[in-house]
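User: Hey, my collaborator sent me this sequence without any context and asked if I could get a structure. I don't really work with proteins. Can you help?
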Amino acid sequence: MDNMFKLLGFWTGIFAVMFWVGGMIPATLIFAASTFFFILLGYLKLTERMYLYLFGAYLTVFMVGFSYYATFLHVPGSH
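Assistant: No problem. I've predicted the 3D structure and written it out in structure-token form, which is a compact way to encode the shape of the chain:
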């Protein structure tokens, strides 16, 4: 399970680089933080149950943040 978190860190790092090349700095920072988080968790050698709990917590925090952004901050149709 720890290798999967390292893999997630690798792919979020790839996305961070692509966002950086595209000039999308806020997305770059979000994905760079996710990369650091996933790689750090990959080297902690936790139990599989703990990895699943942490991933579930990560998904919950993402969903709450995305729902808040989509409901209160995002202005549809603006550039």
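In plain terms: Residues 48-73 form the longest helix (26 residues). You can pass these tokens on to your collaborator as they are.
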